[in-house]
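haha ok so turns out i had the wrong file open the whole time. this is the CORRECT one, sorry everyone. sequence first:
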Amino acid sequence: MRIQVKSNIRDYEVIIERNSISKLQEYFSFEGKVMIITDENIPLTYIQEVKKTIQKCYVYTVKAGDQSKSLEVYQAIIKELLYLHFDKFDCLIALGGGMIGDLTGFVASSYKRGIAYINVPTSTLAQIDSSIGGKVALNCHGVKNCIGFFYPAYKVIIDVNLLKTLPARHYYAGLVEALKAGILQDQTLYTLFKNQEVDTRIEEVIYRALMVKKKIIEMDEFDKNQRKLLNLGHTIGHALESSSKFHLLHGEAVAYGLLKMIDDFTLQKEVCRIIDSLQIDLHNIKYDKNSILEYVLNDKKIDHDKIDLVRVKGIEDCFLQRISLKELGDLL
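then structure:
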């Protein structure tokens, strides 16, 4: 399966194909030096599969977890690229989950004013959502994604086989982004979750979720209007994720935030059952409301003391609502 994404920065292609990690050279011309940026949790066999197809290939490995999306790690990678004399015509490969995609994209967007990078996502979260759209970012002072650019990958290669080694908790947490896409604009995708058919039809789930995001970002690439719909569950979710010091996974925090945005009680209970079926336990999440609101104050979507939330009336029936921080506090 192939998806063509139109962008004001550069158009790019998403390829969804099993075993594609073994033949990256068929999808992109690696003529110069290449650096694979990955983390310590990525199996060595994946790294070796990529390396064997590329002549001048280096590997930079960071610690797993969102703490690696930092200025310190960014500077260390830049130092290594300079030491190896990477130039504007060389290339980076992001081999990992959403954190690696963000970090690699941020490095690529800024090193010598921009070099090419290929995204090879290895998690459900990255394959379903963060690998397209062009947003790349770092965390700073405990605030998620507060430094960032729009800089899409030159190519996105999705190999569903890479999900086999993903821990169950990460696999199911990442699926929340697809559930979000179904609620926003795809009744069929939502029904796959409702009928618990996600695992057996994972390629269709990934494709449908990406098509929802493609449609929205092609209308509003730079987050001025319609793209804000993709933030469903993310205002509370990001604040909750940050306040937990990233002990909560992104999808777990977004699932909690998503439930808070559903107005219809019957639908909220149904979505709650779906989240339970994904082995995500939201019942024991504890937080300080004032701490959550403090993190929201640093949310990039804040406009003075107002913020746009995505509310859910029903499946494929969502809308933007501007509310005050006091009103947000009442929802918590």
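The longest helix spans residues 202-219.
again sry for the mixup
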